[in-house]
Inverse folding.
């Protein structure tokens, strides 16, 4: 007889007349597994895929393993992560788009179905030690407050330890960090040389080191989803210096150079054409000299970011060698989607301007180029560079053309690769990663996870290519859909349509490509083969019904503007904070973009200085602080700062402080401060932001990115904040004010 504590044996009155049977030591004979997932990295952004970006450490894994030239993703981050971790299609598991929203149907819950167990859940069950380090972004973002619920956090989905961040993009100098189930401050500051990628590698090495020391009989699974290379593009000064001037020739030249190298390296088939530029990309020579300087600098930051990340991956690889784990570890390196086009015509110094549909100020940007890559910049490259990143594919992230869904994939299992360094052309999809890991590790996923019956696996293992690099693709069909953009691949043919939000879905114009002969989707055969196109469109519909794609939904930003679901604590009109409180992630702060009042009950002492409320970062947000006997307020609208102050009538003892923020019919906002019975004059915020900030809130200090240069962060408040109350005057249909992807 056995129970959850192991075999019981024969039990007598005493241990002398009983049979001792010890519970078995947990273990598994499979290899270690490391999955390195880049963010927004294009098909052509690694040296081993034709880039001038220097990635020697990733390239050495490519030389030992296999590169895949026909690997595909979902074209967006949360869906690709859900597909990778489960081996199922993203619609089927509830991740239609980002985990920031619930679109109101089973395919768009913003969480991963419990009927689709994660790699971590199945691997841990057989004895793997499981670590997640980096970007999560598959938990509902409305559930990422310090109070949870924690069911969909990493530790709730099979990981033993987690260190990273929860949302879609993160400041790499001042990150909003989570360790396991609670917020923690960064271990150092940018002035001390801190960078998030280095921190993540340090943590990964630490987890593996502890594992090797104490559980060498067990394998480990490290899921390492990087913040790189998603904007903001942050890179240390020495890496910025190393790429200086590299992109002065412009995106047209770089794209051509990458294309030629891809042909020479065999990354793309002989005869592949380079399609004409996407219509939203201006010719480099048509830009003014000023715009060229700006655009080149933003791309330098991106390249430096990727090169710095490669150097940190090198540290991880070196540690595996030093710890004797290199020959025992399966390594998978890929990206979640193609390069993003969110930087616009010449790029953006501050992404918050993009999210608020605000034009960049070229003169101001030109004067800030030296800061690009550093802690005060929040930059994104221009659309032309996104096109170069996706060479030779067309379009970008969000789209189901090659530029959005074709990504690099490198797989290396020591001693198992028949043709090290080879480029393989079998068609594969990100849902194939989990089945590959299960096959290589010798793990058969259970029919149930925590008592919940599991849906069938949708992916196909690609391990067959390890010893048969020339084998035919086992996959015959794969659908794609995102924001109404649709595609279907079947036996080398692809039908694809680019949808425009608000248009009728039947009005979308479908294109047809024979990818076996037209890798870059350069020759549209829709007119020449209408019957084949119709068959593929019908097949897409069948797949859509099979995998819960329907109904189609082309909403994106407007979903962020929808009210939270019924019952959400974010629908309150009053928020009470009794410090000390943890850092509050941006998605769970009160709706600061609405009309609101702030009441602070404080006990003032000492020099009467420090930050009371800090919301946002150096790019946008607001701060309320005390300095030199005055209560001061600054509102940063993507660089346009509104400031006001009021004299505090007493210097010590109990005191009521606060502010009122009132939206006006003309689109402006009026701000007024009070301290005791004193009130400030009214200040006008000319452009209150719809999306206020991409970073969250701290009370009693500004420990992350300094919102103002008027004090030295973290500027802890020297008195005692007894309570902060935020009153929100928010109509039921008001818009949310935080966006992050």
């Amino acid at each position: 007889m056995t129970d959850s504590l192991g075999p019981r044996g024969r039990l007598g009155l005493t241990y002398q007349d009983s049979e001792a049977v010890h519970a078995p030591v947990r273990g598994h004979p499979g290899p270690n597994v490391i999955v390195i997932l880049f963010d927004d990295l294009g098909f052509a952004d690694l040296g081993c895929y034709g880039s001038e970006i220097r990635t020697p450490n990733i390239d050495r894994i490519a030389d030992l393993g296999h590169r895949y030239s026909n690997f595909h993703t979902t074209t967006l981050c949360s869906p690709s992560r859900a597909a990778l971790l489960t081996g199922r299609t993203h619609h089927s598991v509830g991740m239609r788009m980002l985990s920031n929203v619930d679109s109101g149907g089973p395919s768009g819950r913003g969480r991963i179905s419990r009927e689709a167990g994660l790699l971590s859940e199945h691997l841990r069950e057989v004895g793997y030690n499981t670590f997640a380090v980096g970007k999560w972004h598959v938990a509902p973002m409305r559930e990422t407050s310090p109070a949870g619920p924690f069911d969909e956090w990493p530790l709730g989905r099979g990981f033993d330890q987690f260190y990273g961040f929860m949302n879609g993009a993160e400041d790499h100098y001042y990150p909003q960090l989570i360790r396991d189930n609670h917020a923690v401050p960064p271990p150092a500051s940018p002035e001390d040389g801190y960078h998030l990628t280095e921190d993540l590698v340090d943590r990964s090495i630490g987890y593996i080191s502890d594992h090797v020391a104490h559980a060498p009989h067990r394998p480990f699974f490290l899921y390492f989803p990087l913040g790189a290379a998603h904007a903001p593009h942050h890179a240390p000064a020495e890496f910025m210096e190393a790429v200086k001037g590299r992109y002065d020739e412009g995106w047209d030249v770089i794209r051509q150079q990458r294309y030629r190298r891809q042909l020479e390296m065999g990354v793309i088939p002989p005869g592949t054409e380079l399609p004409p530029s996407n219509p939203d990309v201006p010719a480099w020579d048509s830009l003014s000299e000023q715009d060229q300087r700006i655009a080149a600098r933003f791309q330098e930051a991106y390249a430096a970011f990727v090169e710095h990340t490669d150097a940190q991956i090198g540290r991880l690889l070196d540690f595996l060698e030093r710890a004797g784990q290199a020959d025992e570890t399966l390594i998978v390196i890929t990206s979640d989607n193609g390069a993003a086009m969110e930087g616009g015509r010449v790029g953006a110094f501050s992404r918050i301007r993009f999210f608020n549909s605000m034009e960049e100020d070229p003169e101001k940007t030109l004067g800030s180029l030296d800061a690009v890559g550093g802690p005060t910049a929040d930059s994104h490259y221009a659309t032309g560079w996104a096109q170069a990143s996706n060479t030779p594919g067309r379009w970008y992230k969000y789209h189901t053309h090659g530029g959005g869904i074709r990504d690099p994939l490198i797989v290396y299992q020591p001693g198992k690769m028949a043709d090290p360094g080879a480029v393989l052309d079998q068609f594969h999809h990100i849902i194939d990663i989990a089945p590959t890991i299960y096959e290589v590790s010798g793990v058969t996923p259970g029919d149930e996870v925590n008592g919940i019956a599991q849906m069938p696996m949708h992916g196909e293992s690609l391990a067959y290519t390890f010893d048969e690099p020339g084998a035919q693709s086992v996959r015959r069909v794969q659908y794609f859909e995102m924001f109404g953009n649709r595609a279907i691949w079947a036996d080398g043919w692809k039908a694809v349509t680019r949808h425009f939000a608000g248009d009728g879905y039947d009005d979308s114009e479908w294109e047809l490509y024979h990818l076996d002969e037209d890798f870059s989707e350069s020759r549209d055969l829709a007119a020449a083969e209408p019957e084949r196109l119709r068959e593929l469109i019908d097949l897409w519909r069948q797949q859509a019904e099979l995998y819960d794609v329907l109904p189609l939904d082309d909403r994106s930003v407007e979903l962020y503007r929808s009210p939270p679901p019924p019952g959400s604590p974010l629908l309150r009109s009053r928020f009470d904070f009794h410090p000390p409180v943890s850092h509050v992630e941006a998605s769970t702060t009160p709706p600061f973009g609405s009309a609101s009042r702030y009441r602070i009950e404080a006990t003032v002492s000492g020099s009467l200085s420090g930050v009371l409320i800090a919301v946002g970062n150096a790019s946008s947000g607001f701060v309320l602080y005390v300095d030199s006997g005055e209560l001061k307020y600054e509102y940063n609208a993507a660089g346009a700062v509104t400031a006001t102050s009021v004299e505090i009538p007493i210097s010590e003892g109990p005191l009521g402080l606060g502010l009122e923020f009132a939206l006006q019919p003309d689109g402006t906002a009026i701000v007024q401060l009070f301290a005791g019975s004193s009130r400030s004059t009214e200040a006008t915020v000319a452009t209150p932001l719809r999306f206020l900030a991409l970073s969250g809130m701290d009370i009693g200090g500004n420990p992350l990115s300094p919102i103002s240069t008027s004090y030295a962060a973290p500027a802890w408040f020297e008195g005692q904040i007894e309570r902060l109350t935020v009153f929100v005057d928010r109509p039921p249909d008001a818009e949310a004010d935080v966006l992050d992807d």
